[in-house]
């Protein structure tokens, strides 16, 4: 008699094994019989994975749902206000300085700022309002309707009471399953999944570019509006002072000059610090996202099984993710993969 092994050890067709332990496949409704008890098994007909203890879960409490909605609303409001503040405050504080340099610089600055602002807000809107990726509806539940391998590696979502495709996860904030779910982002008030992942990464890229530009321009403008520092006393007595004392004296003069900064200067200093800090944080997040895409993985999959490689690694994942046309990706990757076999650069890449 053939022994049924747990799913993680070996996958077997179990529909024809006559023995004591019985269970029903949720996918096709067939009764499965096995030699030994296993908490997780895969149907040999439809390919669905059944957990013996799966029962429909109660919906989340109203308090929990309200808390998640409040949290998302709070983060979205803070982020939108911050973006508007950086755009409006940056334009107001920087434009007199750039227009004082030349009319061309002023117009160039206004154009670049407008482009960054539109690009960032548009990608934010797309990532935020576009559905993250609901699973396609699929027939399930009874044998004649469900064909061979129709539900290959599908699991059953006990929240939605519906089939859940491989690599999909249920989000309790969005109250739905999301295909290729990466994570639920409270700053966009939405999940990051198959449909809006590209918009989310483009948003991160546009934030990094916008904040870098904002940091450069605000530091440049701060330098121009900063009151003149009086180093006369310091230069006359610096030979008789230690390095530490010179440094302390310099910092004191700099700190005192802050009190003479105009309102425009204070906004500029704040904006330069804020854009540098946001830039650092978002750049780390962007690098993490790009590395997951390169690995053919997602944040949640990495968390649930850190040592499992879910897809093929390589630059082709990044090219495919950003939707480069077929000939361009082929030429680009063919160039980078010089030295690899022809088979690898052909069938696997595209
Ligand atoms: Zn089945
Ligand atoms: Zn679900
Ligand atoms: Zn979500």
Structure explained in plain terms:
This protein starts with 20 loop residues before the first strand and ends with a helix. It folds into 4 domains: 1-54 and 138-167, no CATH class; 60-133 and 180-226 and 270-311; 230-260; 314-350, no CATH class. Helix 1 (62-101) packs across helix 6. The radius of gyration is 29 Å and the shape is elongated. A two-stranded antiparallel ribbon has the order 1-2. It has a two-stranded antiparallel ribbon with strand order 3-4. Strands 5-6 form a two-stranded antiparallel ribbon. With 350 residues, it is mostly helical. Mean pLDDT is 80; it is low at 1-14 and 338-350. It is built from 10 helices and 10 strands.
Any key phrases for this structure?
mainly alpha, two-stranded antiparallel ribbon, 10 helices, 9% strand, elongated, disordered C terminus, binds zinc ion, membrane, S-acyltransferase, transmembrane, transmembrane helix, EC 2.3.1.225
Please describe the topology of this protein.
Elements: E1 21-24, E2 31-34, E3 40-42, E4 49-51, H1 62-101, H2 103-129, E5 155-157, E6 162-164, E7 169-171, E8 176-178, E9 183-185, E10 190-192, H3 197-225, H4 232-237, H5 243-258, H6 263-295, H7 299-304, H8 315-321, H9 326-336, H10 342-348
Enzyme class: transferase
GO molecular function, one term: protein-cysteine S-palmitoyltransferase activity
InterPro entries: Palmitoyltrfase_DHHC, PFA4/ZDH16/20/ERF2-like
State the share of residues found in helices, binned by percent.
Answer: 40-55%
Q: Which segments are poorly predicted (pLDDT under 50) over 5 or more consecutive residues?
A: 1-14, 338-350
The end-to-end distance, rounded to whole angstroms, is 44 Å
- Total tally of structural domains: 4
Average pLDDT figure = 80
**Percentage beta strand:** 5-15%
Order of helices and strands: EEEEHHEEEEEEHHHHHHHH
Protein name: S-acyltransferase
EC number: 2.3.1.225
GO molecular function: protein-cysteine S-palmitoyltransferase activity
Enzyme class: transferase
């Amino acid at each position: 008699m053939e022994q049924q092994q747990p799913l993680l050890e070996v996958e077997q067709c179990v529909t024809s094994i006559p023995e004591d332990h019985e269970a029903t496949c949720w996918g096709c409704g067939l009764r499965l019989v096995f030699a030994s008890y296993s908490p997780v098994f895969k149907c040999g007909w439809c390919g669905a994975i059944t957990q013996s203890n799966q029962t429909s879960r109660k919906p989340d409490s109203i308090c929990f749902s309200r808390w998640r909605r409040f949290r998302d609303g709070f983060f979205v409001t803070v982020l939108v206000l911050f973006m508007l503040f950086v755009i409006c405050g940056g334009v107001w504080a920087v434009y007199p300085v750039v227009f004082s340099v030349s009319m061309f610089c002023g117009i160039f600055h206004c154009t670049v700022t407008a482009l960054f602002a539109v690009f960032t807000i548009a990608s934010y809107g797309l990532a935020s309002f576009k559905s993250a990726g609901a699973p396609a509806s699929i027939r399930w539940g009874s044998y004649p309707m469900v064909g061979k391998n129709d539900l290959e590696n599908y699991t059953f979502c006990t929240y939605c009471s519906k089939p859940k495709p491989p690599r999909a996860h249920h989000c309790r904030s969005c109250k739905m399953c999301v295909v290729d779910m990466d994570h639920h982002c409270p700053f966009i008030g939405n999940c990051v999944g198959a449909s809006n992942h590209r918009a989310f990464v483009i948003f991160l890229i546009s934030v990094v570019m916008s904040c870098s530009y904002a940091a450069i321009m605000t530091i440049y403008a701060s330098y121009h509006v900063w009151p003149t520092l009086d180093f006369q006393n310091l230069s006359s007595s610096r030979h008789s002072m230690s390095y530490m004392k010179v440094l302390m004296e310099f910092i004191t003069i700099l700190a005192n000059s802050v009190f003479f900064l105009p309102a425009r200067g204070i906004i500029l200093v704040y904006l330069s610090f804020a854009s540098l800090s946001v830039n650092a944080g978002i750049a780390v997040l962007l690098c993490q996202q790009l590395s997951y895409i390169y690995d053919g993985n997602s944040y949640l999959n990495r968390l649930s099984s850190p040592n499992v490689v879910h897809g093929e690694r390589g630059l082709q994942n990044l090219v495919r993710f950003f939707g480069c046309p077929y000939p361009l990706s082929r030429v680009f990757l063919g160039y980078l993969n010089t030295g690899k076999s022809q088979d690898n650069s052909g069938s696997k890449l595209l």
